[in-house]
Amino acid sequence: MSAPNNAYDPVEVAVLAPDEVQRMLDDALAAIAAAADLDQLKAARIAHAGDRSPLALANAEIGALPPAARAEAGLRVGSARAAIRQALAERQAELEAERDQRVLIEEAVDVTLPWDRSLAGARHPVTTLGERLTDVFVSMGYEVAEGPEVEAEWYNFDALNFPPDHPAREMYDTIFVAGRHGEQHSGVLLRTHTSPVQIRALLTRPLPLYVVSPGKCYRTDTLDATHSPVFQQIECLAVDEGLTMADLRGAISAFVEAMFGPGLQTRLRPDFFPFTEPSADVSMECHVCRGASARPGGEPCRVCRSQGWIEIAGCGMVNPRMLVACGVDPDRYSGFAFGLGIDRSVLIRNGVTDIRDTFEGDVRFSRAFGMEA
Fold first, then answer.
1. Domain ranges of the chain
2. Residue range 92-102: average pLDDT?
3. Sign (positive/negative) of CA torsion 113, 118, 122, 126?
C-alpha cells in the first residue's frame, strides 16, 4: 500500500497557480467594470461568480492538493472570489442608482400640465333649450304637464280627432308596442307627439287650463341630417272662456321675442291639423339676417337659406271635437295650442346643420354651448 503523496507540488495544478488566479480575478473585475447596465452585470456575475465560473472550477481542484498546500490555495482563491463579490455589489449599487436617476428624468411628471385628462362635460343643448322654452311659458302663466311615453292609442289619436284611416296610424309612421300575445296592433304605442299630455291634462285638471308639455317623441323616420326617430317636442295648450286667434297670435309673439329677441315679425299661414281648427303654420323673421337676404342685393343667409323666414311651429284653435272628447263644453270654452321641436330649435338658434350632432354623445359638441342657463 502506497503512502499519501505529501510531496505533491501545487504549482503543477495550473488553475491554482498565483498568476492564473490573479488573471481570472483581473478578467472578472474588468467584465464587472465594463457592465453598462444591470442585464450586462447579470451576465458578468454568471460568467465570473457562478457555479461554472473559472474560480469556482479552480476551487473544486483544491481537494486534490496535499494538506499542507490546501490552506494557501484556499486563501488565494477565496480572496479572489470575495473581491469579485464585493465588486459585483458595488457595481450593482452604481447601476441601480444610475437607473433610478434616469427614470426620474425620463419618466418625470410635469406638474405644470393640466392634471385632468378627462374632458369636462356640459349640459346638453337640447336639455338646456328645453328648460328655457319651458321657463318662457311658465313666465307667461302656464303650468308644466307630463305624461307617459308609452301611450294608449286613444290618447295619441282618437281623442285628438285622428280618423281611423289616418296615415299617421300606419306602421310606417307610428311605432306600436307588440301585445302580450304578439299581436302587432295592440292599441299601445310610443307617442308620436306630446299632444296626449294635453288630453290627460283636460281630463284631470280644472278649467281654465294653461299647460305646457315638453317631452320625448318617437316616429319611424329615417335618420338623416334633418330627421330622427327620437326627438324632443314641446306643446302648449290654453283652454278658457273667450279665447280667440288674437290670443294665440299674442302668445306666439311673446314666445318669439323671449327666445330670439325683440323686433322679429311673425306670420301665420293656413295649414291643417286634426286637433285644431282653424290651423296655421308659424314662421318668424330670420333672427340672423332679419329678412335682408330675401331682398334684392341682400347677402346670402345660411340660417334661413335666403328666404327671410324660418318655420318654427304649428298652431291653431282647439278643435271642438277634441273638447267634447274630454268632456269640455265647446259652447262655453275655446282654446288654442301650438308646438315645436326642441331639437330643431337648437339647430335654428345655433346654426347647427346636422341634427345627428345633438345625440351622438360627442362631448366636444356639448362643450361648445358651455353651461348656458
1. 10-106, 125-367
2. 90
3. positive
